[in-house]
Design brief:
Layout lengths: L2 H27 L5 E3 L6 H15 L21 H7 L7 H31 L3 H13 L5 H7 L9 H4 L6 H6 L1 H18 L5 H17 L1 H21 L1 H20 L3 H13 L1 H9 L7 H8 L3 H14 L5 H14 L13 H17 L2 H15 L1 H14 L7 E3 H13 L5 E3 L2 H6 L7 E2 L10 H12 L5 H11 L3 E4 L1 H4 L13 E6 L2 E5 L5
Parallel strand pairs: 3-4, 3-5
Antiparallel strand pairs: 1-2, 5-7, 6-7
């Protein structure tokens, strides 16, 4: 990369930083005596869980044990960036510090993703202008999924287009909200670029392997996707010409691939053993369902760039460039990854939009031939591609300007959570509604019985029981038995618990009211230390 290329990447990264941070600034600016901002304008439920993970690290944890279940856990090497970031915070104003650290982490990943994307684009695109357009498409572009909202008018989770819910299929959503996924995207692209430019150098193999090892510690599935793409690339090279492949394999690929695998294998073995033997991790994996949508959703999402990408594939194929075959292999393996029989199959096509974007620019340039036409036409295509990203920013700014749950918590909520943080022991189990249970661990170092879909063990069975506990269906004896069974130390009775449908709020007399203020009551059950 030349100096001008690096400077462009930094300037463009700065623009992305400002645009993605505007809704957050608005949210903090909208705080007042009545409301406190959670730090998130989209994906608040997951956002609360990331702050809770940071709070675990602040409390001294090095292994991840979710606070969203009462089930016993051994701990696992996961969510390491959040645990480490938490260690930078200290009382008072912990939640504010953690929210700011989260967004600083997000901001720091943006130039890393932009640089990594540009470097990979430079392997395939000859001109700086083409590389820039490819980088913009890959990091801020989207498809035509927004048209679904215009046609159907529905905004239910099941009908939302991929650009709004799938950071794996596109790039902008991760830069907007999910820094750990943005970080693994950057590491994956750096590893692929290093692999392509290795030229048989053993050092390059070690470098790519160490990069993927770090990626495993952040998000293991991204490293597996990267290995799948490299494997597909090798198979495609073998299919195109066995003699040429045999010569390249011994001189160029074999020394690199073996050394790339060595740093990764110990961690792969660790995760396989951990998730196949630990009872909680097995249950977590079973509950963590993230299925890919029907093929029509992907066709609409990628349809804007698909014709140009096909032209780029044909051009790369005719050139018989072994490096150019990587993007073709990536797109060919995409359907297998998207519909692989795995609970979180939607995570597996990580980064495929980068391949579509680079090939689309290559195809667009090859199709039109004339540079002037290319310069005039590309802004129009990119503008259409950025509609989804623009609506995400505008939607985030709109909700940030009007304080309401779940993006904000009331002062009464925060006062009750803070009191519990000061009086409960770390790790005490608290009974609360799902909504309260999701927010509480982000403000207090306690556990809750339910509060986060995949991490709350036996959620489907427990959620109706929690509702029955609060809405008056159970007798005092049944309530007491439930508390003893799960070793619950504290019970919250607040607005979201009363919203579960019942009018009865009387709890057994032996449970002492420790906190009673502004619509909240907190009971100590005697099960807590």
């Amino acid at each position: 990369m030349t100096r001008s290329e690096r400077m462009w990447c930094l300037v463009y990264s700065g623009i992305l930083v400002v645009l993605t941070t505007i809704p957050v600034w608005i949210g903090f600016g909208a705080e007042g005596d009545a409301w406190r901002f959670t730090g998130f304008v989209i994906g608040v439920e997951d956002g609360n869980s990331y702050i809770a993970k940071m709070l675990l690290g602040q409390g001294g944890a090095w292994l991840f044990r979710t606070p969203y279940t009462g089930m016993e856990q051994h701990g696992v090497l996961a969510f390491l960036p959040f645990l480490l970031l938490g260690k930078l915070a200290s009382a008072p104003a912990l939640h504010l510090q953690l929210a700011v650290l989260y967004h600083l982490f997000r901001i720091a990943t943006i130039p890393l993703v932009v640089m990594a994307t540009y470097r990979l684009a430079a392997v395939f695109l000859p001109g700086e202008g083409q590389r820039r357009w490819g980088t913009v498409l890959a990091t801020a572009g989207g498809g035509l999924g927004w048209a679904m909202l215009l046609v159907s008018g529905s905004q239910s989770a099941a009908s939302l287009p991929l650009e709004y819910i799938s950071p794996e299929s596109f790039g902008f959503l991760a830069l907007y909200t999910l820094p750990h996924l943005a970080l693994t995207r950057a590491l994956m692209l750096i590893a692929l670029t290093t692999y392509l430019q290795s030229n048989g150098r053993m050092r390059a193999g070690w470098e790519a392997g160490l990069i993927l090892m770090i990626s495993l510690l952040v998000q293991p599935l991204t490293a597996l996707t990267c290995l799948a793409v490299i494997g597909a690339h090798q198979l495609l090279l073998f299919w195109r010409g066995r003699t040429a492949f045999s010569n390249d394999w011994n001189a160029r690929w074999r020394p690199v691939l073996w050394r790339m695998l060595i740093p990764i294998l110990p961690f792969l073995v660790y995760y396989i053993i951990a998730f196949s033997t630990d009872p909680f991790l097995k249950l977590w994996s079973a509950q963590n369902q993230l299925q890919s949508p029907p093929p029509g959703y992907y066709l609409l999402a990628f349809g804007l760039l698909l014709p140009f990408s096909i032209v780029g594939i044909v051009t790369a194929w005719c050139q018989r460039d072994p490096d150019a075959s990587l993007l073709t292999a990536w797109i060919l393996i995409f359907p297998l990854l998207a519909y692989f029989p795995y609970p979180v199959q939607r995570r597996l096509p990580e980064g495929v939009w980068v391949a579509f974007s680079i090939l689309a620019i290559k195809g667009f340039a090859d199709l039109l031939r004339r540079q002037r036409v290319f310069k005039l036409a590309m802004p129009f295509v990119v503008s259409i591609s950025m509609i989804s990203s623009g609506t995400l920013i505008m939607g985030g700014a709109a909700v940030a300007s009007r304080p309401a749950r779940p993006m904000f918590r009331t002062s009464a909520d925060v006062a009750a959570y803070t009191w519990l943080a000061d009086h409960a022991q770390p790790g005490d189990l608290v009974l609360a509604s799902y909504a309260t249970g999701n927010a509480l661990p982000a403000w207090a170092g306690v556990r809750v019985l339910i509060g986060l879909g995949p991490e709350s063990a036996n959620l489907q069975a427990l959620e109706p029981e929690v509702k029955a506990f609060y809405n008056g269906e159970w007798t005092e004896e049944e309530q007491a038995s439930f508390v003893k069974l799960h070793d619950i130390g504290w019970i919250i009775l607040g607005p979201e618990e009363r919203d579960l449908g019942g009018k009865r709020t009387i709890l057994p007399a032996e449970w002492q009211i420790e906190y009673d203020d502004d619509g909240y009551q907190i009971f100590r059950t005697g099960e807590s230390p």
